[in-house]
Structures are given as structure tokens and as C-alpha cells.
Amino acid sequence: MFQIAHLRPGETLLVHGGSSGIGTMAIQLAKAVGAKVAVTAGSPEKLAACRELGADILINYREQDFVEELRETTAGHGADVILDVIGAKYLDRNLDALAVSGRLVVIGMQGGIQAELNLGKLMAKRAAIAATGLRARPLEEKAAIVASVREHVWPLIESGAVKPVIDRLLPIESAPDAHRLMETSTHVGKILLQL
Predict the structure, then answer these.
(1) In order along the chain (195 residues), what is the average pLDDT of each group of 10 residues?
(2) CA contacts within 13 A on the Cβ side of 151
(3) Which sequence spans correspond to the domains of the chain?
(4) Is the pTM of this model over 0.85?
């Protein structure tokens, strides 16, 4: 959101999967810098959890069209930054939801890996698309990310402005149960395994 998409105060961020571990942290960090936050989630309970974390615009993707809801709630502006865990399935709709000069950051592929890109939409909005992940990065880049988190995020956690959201803590022997729980997609935040 910050290193790649350069989210700034006053901008609107759309977080797909707002109740996920990444989503719950994204909401809090965006609010900490003064951004307006829109989220998608699949149940009223998950949306309520996002609201408690500071989300301003709540969109139930099972019942609402996120593009239309975003247009309506931002007076047609759209999202300046979109953090997307879905991938291919949402590519075209994300372009529709982006504001002019918007930035789309793809961090997951839950909705597939291949999609057709409408370059006309991308160019008309003067938008940018980036995709990123941690696993394939060289150690130096991972170290720089850790240093940035230590400098910018850790003080927010220490002050209590940002809090990790942990759905539950399970013993390592319950790893299969944790995977089943993740598959139900009923949790909010992270599921942690403890040694």
C-alpha cells in the first residue's frame, strides 16, 4: 500500500478481503495515515469487524457490486488504491473501480492467474498495476521490508493505534483443524499455530 502504491492521506483505499489477516492490518494502517477505507467481505459479521477496525465503506461482495457501491459512496471518484487478493477474476472490475491515476496492487490469486487486460481502460484512467509477494524476493529486499515495518509500523503497534487481529490460537497438533477452518472462511484476522 505504501512502498508500491504510495497511499496518501485523504485517498481512498479498497481492500478486497477486508476481514482477512492482511485486510485487517491494511484497514488499520490506512486509517493511521488518514486514508478513507472501503472493504469487501462476504458476511455482515465480517463487515462489522471491518467497521470496528475503522473501515468507512462496507461492501458485501455476495450481495453488492463493489464497483457500483464504490462509485456511489465516493461520488464517482473510485478507489485511488486497490489491494487485491483475488487476482484474475477481479482484474477488469478493479479497473472499473479505480480512480483516475489509481494504483492496483495484486497480492493474491484466489480468483485465478489469467485474465484479459483492457489496455484502453488502463490508459484512459492513467492507472498502474503492480503485483507483488514476499516469497520470491531476495533476502536484501526482505530485510528492507522488515526495516521499514520496524520503523513505520512497529511504533503504531506499540502505541496501540494498530493491533494484530487474531481469530484464534491453536496448538501445532491442530494444524489440520486450522486448515479446515481457513477453508470455511468464517474467521476474521489470522489463525495462529503455537508450538
Answers:
(1) 94 97 97 98 98 98 98 98 96 98 96 95 97 91 93 94 95 96 93 95
(2) 6
(3) 12-131, 140-194
(4) yes
